[in-house]
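Sorry to interrupt, but I need a hand with the structure work. Could you write out one complete protein record for me, on any chain you like? Could you add the entry underneath, on a fresh line?
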Amino acid sequence: MGSEITKTEFSEEDFRQFHQNLRKETRILMDWFSSDLFDNHQEMCGFELEAWLIDQHCAPTARNEEFLQRVNNPLVVPELSKYNFELNIAPHPLDCHLPEFLKNELQKLWNICTINALDMGCNTLLTGILPTLQDRMLTLENISSLKRFHALNHEILRSISRHSLKIHIEGEKESLDIVHHDVMAEAATTSLQIHFQVPVSKAAAVYNIAHILSAPMVALTANSPFLFGKELWDETRIPLFEQAVKTPAFVDLSGRVVSRVTFGRDYVRDSLKEVFLENLDGFPALLPITFDQDFSLLNHLRLHNGTIWRWNRPLIGFGEDGRPHVRIEHRVPPAGPSIPDIVANILFFYGATLHLQPEVPQAEISFEHARSNFYAASRFGLDARVTWSSGNAMPVDTLLLQQLIPGAIQALAERGIDSHELKYYLVDILARRVATRRNGAWWQKTFIRRHGPDFRAMTQAYLENQRKNIPVHEWSI
């Protein structure tokens, strides 16, 4: 989905040809899973991070084209709306240098973005949903100019017979009901997407664990409690994204409708082959672009996979030597609140995944429990209760403090990561964030309760705190 396309409207023949090519490439991929073709040498880490451009009044400003021209860096790319951009970090091995690499590379790239934005009279901001964003701002007038975004909007609307996209989100105190005639509501959601490249022999286990970790991850990182001035879920980004591009694809065995933005329908049993076969048979093509290159590049398969937004998504990539690899993309966390927080969140995901990997826990935590845990944690954040091993319900903060954070520390220490780095990111930042219950969602809600519904003032205070480069549990209110 990161590549530009050549046209925005498609014929029946385009869809027929695309599906034929997709079937050929899926067959090639199935053969790869049955052979020793994948790169299995080492685990690699990387991420994508979405961000906002805001003006001097803390409102979103639709100037990403000028901004991207100024930055002129292939690691900084457009997003769906002109308000947003995305940062990408080169992959790095999971070794003792990882914390320093993540911090330095992200800070360096963020500084470049901030300086160029300031030269334009703008600011850059990392948050899950911009608190000053208003529904009237999310129109096609502010969609990025790339053809793939216009084609995506056109085809999603076509797939639902031009019906409106109805968004209903029920919070504890307030609810939101809006109608959109395009996909621009999705632009309100800005996320951190963590990538974990693993040997194919471990990929199924890591994919399943990513689902299990989704609930504690979203509780830990929640940073999107407000949308259009209403207090909804601690991570409102989750239901908003699911409904902003809601295109039902198929009905699973339990009778549940599976849409293109989905937590999924089950764990994989044996191999990630199962997910790509589901892609082929369960999800109609959205962007039927045909490629002339060798089918072994899997261009059709990878484009199709990029239009299915699983919260945990398997990806096929290629190394510099041309060998394919498998990586898991964990799409659960929001952007922000600070760079130290982001690095801590990323390290925790890797550490907790390694901690759970020796004994794949889906035998004790059913997929239905993993799913219900995820939505409970999205709604209630660190106040959520989750069903964990042996069917026992427990507070998610207890699970994090007593099991997952200590387990992540131990797993990362075994990979050679320095004890001082682990103490800073996983104890001084994460454990303190959980113990004080002060994640980004808590900070935003507390600010509004103390100062009233002045979202411009809150965003200004948020920006000032973010610039101090300190973790959110230490932010002033």
Summary: The radius of gyration is 21 Å. The chain has one domain: 12-472.
